[in-house]
């Protein structure tokens, strides 16, 4: 059995963010979600909350190094603060890609050690890397040497049968020594075979207690809890035990949940923007993106806003009008303009 006391004794933490007056930017984060949190989605979310910490979809090192890196890296400066999430396991390649993200203006580089899909495992990255904490530490060290922005890790609490608290401590302490001061921990383990990625988001039970204990045992680390957060009240309760929370699917399907984030978690005093005001601010962005003629289609933006009026009168009319019209030939900004009165 792992000796927790020896592991924690060997970990020499850096000075805490709080002790040097750095604001808790990651107090509430929106999870990186493949095919969802693209640049249009992030711009939309930023109109709702000015302070929530945003994350890109995961992008592999191969896609950046051998593909059209501009397509993956470009974003609107209005999105900041925003982190770029990388998938990979080659320290040298990760260092190159981390530097690319820093040069483009991202505020953080995050290493994915939590995705359990077969495709990710075949590429030797994602959750399977939890079985190789020394390799993850090498990756973090290489990335940290290449950039001056924070390098963070998003993981699970464990994988398969390797889900003891001792093994989680071993992982966190090994990677922390390499220079990672922020861990975003999905409070479920991942089954690398037998469950789909979707099932891995729901079937393994949530173990908030393990994440809370990590914060107690490593008080100088910034610990962000991910998994099962669906209300701001729940987020506030979790924040009694850790430094931050990460909201995933709820923020996408019901984005207006973010409207009160700035006031409740960042001390803002202004009233939240109304849904209608958010659309007034988004419409010029949609116009601009369609006029750029770089392949942006109306649906690539409007698919992210279907849930804006979730729970409100007329929400069904809003969704129906957009869904039925955005893909028609010649669809333009008028589809969105007409969807607003369609709610009535």
From TrEMBL:
GO terms for molecular function: flavin adenine dinucleotide binding; FMN binding; tRNA binding; tRNA-dihydrouridine20 synthase activity; tRNA-dihydrouridine20a synthase activity. The record marks 112, 198, 201, 316, 319 as: Interacts with tRNA. Keywords: Flavoprotein, FMN, NADP, Nucleotide-binding, Oxidoreductase, RNA-binding, tRNA processing, tRNA-binding. Its EC number is 1.3.1.91. It holds the Pfam family Dus. It catalyses: 5,6-dihydrouridine(20) in tRNA + NAD(+) = uridine(20) in tRNA + NADH + H(+); 5,6-dihydrouridine(20) in tRNA + NADP(+) = uridine(20) in tRNA + NADPH + H(+); 5,6-dihydrouridine(20a) in tRNA + NAD(+) = uridine(20a) in tRNA + NADH + H(+); 5,6-dihydrouridine(20a) in tRNA + NADP(+) = uridine(20a) in tRNA + NADPH + H(+). FMN binds at residues 32-34, 85, 154, 186, 226-228, 248-249. Residues 30-336 form the DUS-like FMN-binding domain. Its cofactor is FMN. The active site is at residue 115. Belongs to the dus family. NCBIfam families: PRK11815.1, yjbN. Catalyzes the synthesis of 5,6-dihydrouridine (D), a modified base found in the D-loop of most tRNAs, via the reduction of the C5-C6 double bond in target uridines. Specifically modifies U20 and U20a in tRNAs. This is tRNA-dihydrouridine(20/20a) synthase. It comes from Methylobacter tundripaludum.
């Amino acid at each position: 059995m792992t000796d927790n006391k020896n592991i924690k004794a060997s970990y020499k933490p850096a000075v805490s963010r709080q002790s040097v007056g750095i604001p808790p930017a990651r107090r509430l984060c929106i999870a990186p979600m493949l095919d969802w949190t693209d640049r249009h989605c992030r711009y939309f979310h930023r109109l709702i909350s000015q302070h929530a910490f945003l994350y890109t979809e995961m992008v592999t090192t191969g896609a950046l190094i051998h593909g059209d890196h501009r397509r993956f890296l470009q974003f609107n400066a209005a999105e900041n603060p925003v982190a770029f999430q990388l998938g990979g396991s080659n320290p040298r390649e990760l260092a190159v890609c981390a530097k690319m993200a820093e040069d483009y203006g991202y505020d953080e580089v995050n290493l994915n050690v939590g995705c359990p899909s077969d495709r990710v495992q075949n590429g030797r990255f994602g959750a399977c890397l939890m079985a190789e904490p020394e390799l993850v530490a090498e990756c973090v060290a290489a990335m940290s040497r290449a950039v001056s922005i924070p390098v963070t890790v998003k993981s699970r609490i464990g994988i398969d049968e390797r889900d003891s608290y001792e093994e989680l401590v071993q992982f966190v302490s090994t990677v922390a020594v390499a220079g990672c001061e922020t861990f975003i921990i999905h409070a479920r383990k991942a089954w690398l075979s037998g469950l789909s990625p979707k099932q891995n988001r729901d079937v393994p039970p949530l173990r908030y207690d393990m994440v809370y204990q990590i914060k107690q045992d490593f008080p100088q680390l910034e610990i962000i809890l991910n998994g099962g957060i669906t209300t701001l009240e729940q987020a506030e309760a979790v924040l009694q035990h850790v430094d931050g929370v990460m909201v995933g699917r709820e923020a996408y399907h019901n984005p207006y949940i973010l409207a009160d984030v700035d006031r409740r978690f960042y001390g803002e005093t202004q009233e939240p923007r109304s849904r209608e005001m958010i659309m007034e601010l988004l419409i010029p962005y949609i116009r601009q993106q369609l006029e750029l003629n770089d392949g942006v289609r109306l649906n690539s933006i409007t698919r992210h806003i279907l849930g804006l009026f979730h729970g409100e009168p007329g929400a069904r009319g809003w969704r129906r009008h957009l869904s039925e019209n955005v893909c028609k030939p010649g669809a333009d900004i008028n589809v969105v303009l007409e969807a607003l009165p369609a709610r009535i």
